[in-house]
Design brief:
The chain is of the alpha+beta class. It is built from two helices and two strands. The N and C termini lie far apart (about 105 Å).
Length: about 110
Amino acid sequence: MAGPVPEDADSWSDDEWLTWLADVDAESPPEPEGHPLRPGRSLPSAMLGAAMLGLHRVIYGDTDTQVQIVVDAGGDPEPERLEVHLDPDDPDASQVTVRPWLDDDTSPGTPA
């Protein structure tokens, strides 16, 4: 057990202070491991927060933006056999054009 601290701190040598500190550290309980636990939110505050986030989404819409990467390519694009036009608003209006003559050396108006 650690003894009392002297009235005059300068009267103890460094070794006496280190011994006293080691005794005090030995008496203290061990420190808990891991992250300290955060107190949970109460049910009313959790519901109020969820309602506020929902109202924000209703009023302002989704604010999640998708990153778009645009790269300029040099030269003329080569025509492809399949040409796809997708309409995200009306999927029935989406179109796919198949051009089989691009695989051959013949064109649509040229006899084979």
